[in-house]
Structure formats: structure tokens, C-alpha cells
Design goal:
mainly alpha; 12 helices
Length: about 240
Amino acid sequence: MLPFWIALQFLSSLPIRLPGMPQPRELGRSLLFYPLVGLLFGAILWVVNWLLLGIPTLLHGALLLSVWVLLSGGLHLDGLADSADAWLGGFGDRERTLTIMKDPRSGPIAVVTLVLVLLLKFAALLALIEQQQAVALIIVPLIGRSAMLGLFLSTPYVRAAGLGQALADHLPRAAGWRVLAASGLACVLIGGLSGVVAVVLAAIGFVWLRQVMVRRLGGTTGDTAGALLELLEVGVLVGLALT
């Protein structure tokens, strides 16, 4: 179960401590457990939503979103912010875009992007709470983290070193595709028609965002993987709230 604990430590703010530095093979296998981490997040959010039933809707949505953000420690929001700055400041140039993404500072476009994404997420959560579609809280985190697995399976990693390269190099690809298929099936079984809609929306968004990455960078980075997760989550939430 070491790969699962690696995935949980990397993707969450939960107090997970590994005994030492994992081997590259274990790092690669940890990607197979990203959907399971998403499912765990979904279960936590579903329970939190149940505990918050009966309080004012605005406060309900705000607390639920806060727990959602805190579960991941803002990791993927940071990737979204870095990607937003780089896409604008890179002026279409690959090397300039990659350089800006390594800068820890956030510019105005990053702040605006984060505000818009969180605002849309909050509004969609309010709508889903009112519609009593709590199942979305389970399938959306599952879809987001499954998408990261799908990205590493289908897209070159463009930075020559670091954790992302180890993940990409040692990911068991045959097992990865099976896990990805099982994750899509799980969304349908858990969510029914909502699960089907969520998977279709996520697939469309994934294909488009992947094309954008490949066109600009020739592949993906850790930051763009985080941006993909956040944009797919908000897109699927909004789509479910409108259906």
C-alpha cells in the first residue's frame, strides 16, 4: 500500500508521513491511486455536506468549499495560478512560458483566475446543494484526480527532472489505462445519469485542455496538471448544476 500513501501525502494536506524517500518505481505506481484519493476526498465532502444540512445555504456552500480547498492544501490552485500567469506572460513562446511557471510569485492574471474559479465553484455548489445533488461531491473529486492519471498516461512530461519526471517514467501504463477505465465506470455507477454527464463533460474538457498544453509546451508539467484538475472540477460542477 506504499504507493497509495505516497499519493495521499502528495495530493492532500492530511498528516501522512512516509518513513523515507520513496523509490522511483513506487512514485510511478502512486499515480494508479490518484483516483482512489479522489474518491476518498469525495466521501469526506459528502459526509461534511451531510453534517452541514440545515444551516444557511450560503454558509453551507462556503464551509464546503473551504473543506474542499483545505483537503488538497491549495496545491492544484497554485498550479492553476502559475499556469495562468505563464500563459499570458509567455506570449506564445514555449521557453518563456516554462520559465514563468517556475516563478513562485503570482501576478494579477493569476489572482483574477483564482477568484473566478473559486467563485464559479462556490456558485455551482450552492446550486447543487439546493438541488440536493450530493452525489456530485463524490464524483467530481474522483474525476479531477483521474484526469491527472489520464494526462500522465497520454501526454509527455516536458521538464527533464524532478518528481513529475519520475512519475511519468515509472507509471505502469497498462495498469494505468485499466484504472482510468474503472474510474469512469465508478462515476457512472455512483452517479447514474449525472455520472454519465460528468464523464462526458470531463472528457471534452480534457481533450481540449490537453491540446492547448501540447500546442504551447509540447506536453505537460506539474503546474499544468494542477490547472487541468481545477478547471475540470469547476467545469463539471457548473455543468451538473445546469442539468
